[in-house]
């Protein structure tokens, strides 16, 4: 590789690493702070860059938030796709593990999405992915009537939702293993 091409690649790699640090910092701030109270200066300081660098790279706080959610949605989708290839019991296990990491953040993103330009569309994409994933991860008997399929599909989607995880885990005061058992008890009978 010639020197100029190597330098361009190195600069691009450094810019990508900087963008990842900024997104990581935004994710950490958003996880613990209402969106309206997240300050660009704080995110920049957490990422080890200036506010000017952050704005030059992302344009605005809303654009940074959208980039953060888009990156995490891609990561979530990849992990969930892998889990969908397993048995229903293993898929439930991975879903609970996923919600232990992302559940509260998903629910917070949905609740604050209206505050951020562009974020409602990303939230809708995440929701559409969840619905499609549930259909593929937990296929139903094709001999079921259309009505029974629709009812069971709705039940599966609701059972696998982050809100159900939160209700079981926190409102129901279950630990992770108990939450997994409760979700399996709700879901597995629908797959017969």
TrEMBL record:
Residues 39-58 bind DNA. Pfam families: TetR_N (PF00440). InterPro entries: Homeodomain-like_sf (IPR009057), HTH-type_TetR-like_transc_reg (IPR050109), HTH_TetR (IPR001647). Transmembrane segments: none annotated. Residues 16-76 form the HTH tetR-type domain. The keyword Ligase does not apply. Keywords: DNA-binding, Transcription, Transcription regulation. The keyword Ribonucleoprotein does not apply. This is HTH tetR-type domain-containing protein. It comes from Microbacterium aoyamense. The lineage of its organism: Bacteria, Bacillati, Actinomycetota, Actinomycetes, Micrococcales.
